[in-house]
Specification:
The protein is of the alpha+beta class. The protein folds into 5 domains: about 1-110, SH3 type barrels (Roll), CATH 2.30.30; about 130-190, no CATH class; about 200-290, no CATH class; about 330-415, no CATH class; about 430-575, Ribonuclease H-like superfamily/Ribonuclease H (Nucleotidyltransferase, domain 5). Helices cover about 30% and strands about 15% of the residues. The chain contains 16 helices and 12 strands. The chain has helices spanning about 1-10, 15-25, 40-45, 130-140, 180-190, 200, 205-220, 280-295, 330-335, 365-375, 385-390, 400-415, 475-500, 515-520, 540-545, 570-575, and strands spanning about 60-65, 75-85, 90-95, 100-105, 110, 240-245, 250-260, 430-435, 450-455, 460-465, 505-510, 550. The strands form 3 sheets. Strands 4-3-2-1-5 form a 5-stranded antiparallel β-sheet. It has a 5-stranded mixed β-sheet with strand order 10-9-8-11-12. A two-stranded antiparallel sheet has the order 6-7. The longest helix is centred in the last third of the chain and has 25 residues, at about 475-500. The radius of gyration is 36 Å and the shape is extended.
């Protein structure tokens, strides 16, 4: 590295000491595989090095003149050359080109594209990225095609110097002698940028589509399966590699994203025992071409997408979860364990009681399945009602209850891709929907409360729960359900207040029972509702305070009905996420 620094800067050999010190300074801050891709500086100081102060060795710079004897019209900076980094303070060691004296300075302005000791001036400077793309496309272009000329500018081509250095500014200097077609060509090439990280690629929909295509190919080939890392195994990482496929005319052919594992972290003899890739021998190819030519056979050329995935891996390799990968069907593991991956999807509801069917010989299997459905219900409000129904029989489950659980799995088979959706363009206001299934329990004839609460257009809270006492009318059951919903709204309002988020009042409150709405708004019904619990009249109190604004909604448009049925209502069927 020291020799390369001297050659690049054209400094005399007498500055070999400065080049060695600079090379040592840089090597100590470069990651190395011997230290698990950490730099010696990071291993020693337990923090990553700072690269913002690095400058080009041997470049022109101007150091501040701090002489106390300078006058008002004297130069404020001296023309110098950068030699190395100071070893005992945060400064740069520079040499004054007029006096040939070396000194350390903190206040330095660098011109990293100019070298004072270089004899050949660099008149034409193109950015490194443009130059690479230009060379790449010119090599891929057919040699038989004549070079296009521009009738507007017929001046001879200016030769580009072999020493090309990256420009410090964002723009590039293009001489006027270049033709208009050449300028347009290079400008188009410069716009083709390949992302280096997943975060950069995730900002472009074209690269996102390329990553999704790669992940789908990996899933189709069964490249991996999600599992837990054994204690004795070590997982390797992965990263995305992005590449632009370019046509001979310079246009973009394809956005290619490839996911590769960090195989360099593996140890031979422990993680793998042999590395081999089968390729076609050139002699075989020439023999086939000779036979085809002799027998006048047509020759066809083809390309197999993701050909490297068709091989078989004998060793077990564990890889950390990668960026951008999500399980599209989170309920698949439940279906796999229940041997129902090939089940026929259904959406028919069911009614359970405590009498039908014989007792299960293995109730733990039923409890384990219901527990997994309960966990899945954290992101699936449509599973709230069936899980509530199945949870009633955890102590003594019967065969009818097991059949009902399998029925839920068949429903899950057709809705594995559904889930919650949190849009970015959403207003921060609350809205609530309340519903009740009157006397729906065949054993106790108690009603079931169901509600859902949205924050803007995001569903944040829902519940399906059997009421604690029997209701004598559907209006009473709906009114009790409204009381439970108001309690949840009060708690959410306190939480938003702690988050310092202003809340708009009154909160929109929707119910499909007009009698319950009349009980809330009309005190004349007080004599008819004395038997209701006092806490149920919390709804009326909060209505008077202006906390909620109850309104009527049609039963078919009621989102809260999903908390009381296994099927998705019409109001939610058109917006699965």
């Amino acid at each position: 590295m020291a020799r390369a620094l001297l050659f690049q800067s054209s400094l005399p050999t007498k500055f070999w000491g400065e080049s060695v010190l600079t090379a040592t300074y840089l090597i100590n801050r470069l990651p190395t595989p011997l230290l698990h891709w950490k730099s010696p500086f990071e291993v020693l100081h337990q923090k990553p090095p700072d690269y913002t102060h690095l400058k080009v060795f041997g470049c022109l710079c101007y150091a501040s003149n701090n002489s106390p004897h300078k006058g008002k019209f004297d130069q404020r900076a001296s023309k110098c050359v950068f030699l190395r980094y100071s070893s005992y303070k945060k400064a740069y060691r520079v040499m004054d080109l007029d006096t040939n004296t070396m000194f350390d300075s903190r206040d330095v302005m660098f011109h990293e594209i100019t070298y004072p000791f270089q004899s050949t001036p660099q008149k034409q400077i193109l950015s490194h990225f443009r130059y690479q793309l230009l060379i790449l496309i010119l090599i891929e272009s057919p040699t038989s095609t004549p070079t296009p000329t521009d009738s507007l500018n017929s001046s001879p081509t200016v030769p580009v110097s072999p020493n090309i250095y990256p420009s410090a500014s964002s723009s590039s200097c293009i001489p006027d002698s270049f033709s208009l077609a050449h300028i347009c060509f290079v400008s188009q090439c410069s716009s083709m940028q390949e992302p280096k990280t997943y975060l950069q690629a995730n900002k472009d929909a074209r690269w996102v589509a390329a990553m999704q295509e790669e992940l789908q190919a990996l899933d189709r080939n069964g490249t991996w399966e999600l599992t837990s890392l054994p204690p004795t195994k070590r997982a390797i990482g992965s990263w995305w590699v992005f590449k632009l496929k370019i046509h001979p005319d310079g246009s973009i052919a394809r956005y290619k994203a490839r996911l590769v594992a960090k195989g360099y972290n593996q140890t031979e003899g422990v993680d793998y025992f042999d590395s081999f890739s089968s390729v076609a021998k050139s002699v075989t190819v020439r023999i086939l071409m000779s036979i085809a030519a002799a027998k006048s056979w047509p020759l066809f050329q083809l390309d197999i997408n993701n050909a490297f995935l068709h091989g078989h891996l004998d060793e077990e390799v564990y890889m950390d979860p990668l960026e951008g990968y999500t399980t599209a069907q989170p309920g698949q593991d439940i279906l796999r364990d229940a041997s129902m991956l090939d089940a026929r999807p259904t959406s028919i509801s069911f009614n359970l009681n405590n009498e039908e069917g014989a007792l299960l010989h293995c109730p733990d299997r039923y409890r384990r399945l219901v527990g997994r459905l309960l966990y899945l219900g954290f992101t699936r409000p449509d599973l709230s009602f069936p899980v509530q129904q199945l949870s009633q029989f955890m102590q003594h489950p019967r065969t009818s209850h097991w059949d009902a659980a399998l029925h839920v799995l068949r429903y899950l088979k057709g809705t594995c891709t559904l889930g919650l959706f949190f849009p970015s363009q959403s207003s921060l206001h609350l809205s609530a929907y309340s519903d009740a299934a009157w006397a729906s329990c065949p054993d106790s004839r108690r009603s079931i409360t169901g509600f859902c609460i949205s924050f803007g257009t995001s569903l944040i809270s829902w519940k399906t729960k059997k009421q604690t006492m029997v209701s004598r009318s559907s209006a009473e059951a709906e009114y009790r359900s409204m009381g439970s919903t108001v309690c949840e709204l009060l708690w959410i309002s306190y939480l938003l207040s702690d988050f310092l988020i202003p809340m708009q009042q009154p909160i929109s409150f929707w119910c499909d029972n007009r009698a319950a709405l009349h009980i809330t708004a009309n005190p004349v019904f007080h004599e008819r509702t004395k038997h209701l619990d006092i806490d149920c009249h919390l709804v009326r109190d909060q209505y008077k305070r202006g906390f909620i604004l109850p309104s009527h909604i049609r039963g078919l448009d009621q989102p809260a009905i999903s908390s009381l049925r296994l099927t998705i209502p019409a109001s939610l069927a058109y917006c699965p996420s």
